[in-house]
Amino acid sequence: xxHPLLAPGIDGHTHTSFCPHGDRQPTRRYxxxxxxxxxxxxxxxxxxxxxxxxxxxxxxxxxxxPPADLLPYxxxxxxxxAEFADHLxxxxxAEVDWLGSAQGGWHEATLAQLDSIWDRLAPEATLxxxxxxxxxxxxxxxxxxxxxxxxxxxxxxxxxxxxxxxAALRASWTVGRRDLRPRRIGHLTLPRKFIRALPLAEPERxxxxxxxxxxRIAAEGxxxxxxxxxxxxxxxxxxxxxxxxxxxxxxLGIELVHGSDAHAPERVGNHRDVVAQxxxxx
Length: 282
Ligand SMILES: [Zn+2]
Ligand SMILES: [Zn+2]
Hints:
Number of strands: 11
CATH architecture: Alpha-Beta Barrel
Strand order of the largest sheet: 1-2-3-4-9-10-11
Number of domains: 1
Helix content: 25-40%
Shape: globular
Largest sheet: 7 strands, parallel
Bound molecules: zinc ion
């Protein structure tokens, strides 16, 4: 995998035993799997807790760990990083949700939480993801996606999702003198998780929106999570950067980092062969 725009030898997006919708195997198993795959580097990027009072559309503490687990998560990740240091470079990071598209001071709450732990995170292992739009979630199930705009074609929630991501990129992430904005965008085309079940009415309009976002991402020097989890989803069957977006991202010089988005140890490093082949073809 030595494409000039692909960060080499890393799975840059993985979860842990702290993920409520993961399979709850020990985090240690994720690291052991990375070693088995001969991966030199692994980024641990657990979902940060949602702020108190934020509505989790999947049920209480389903999308992310409870706030009380945050410090134990970091403690365990740091301990494992030290323990595996001879075999694997572990980057302790986080998947940060943009919550500013919902009403309430959620972005401020996110910043306060990030500020409190920033010194313990590897900035290059921080992901910015949008899962929540207007009180619902884009990737929970097709009904919840459509709940964003009942009766309208799926285009509505795709466009709302990209608007939310655009707002996240325009927002201030500065606290004091520190810029806490995550360095990488998680699964850019996540609304396509159910694309086979919920095809777009006007795909060109959504495509145009994504291309404009890619230009912003390039201009701001952010990386993209080349996320392969969608390949295993029945209603998706593609990476979360399908052609022609992949080619456009490469043409713009955006650096890609492979992310398996493993929620179970055996998924760590999954599809790195596909990533390598796709980039050779690109
Ligand atoms: Zn997850
Ligand atoms: Zn993830």
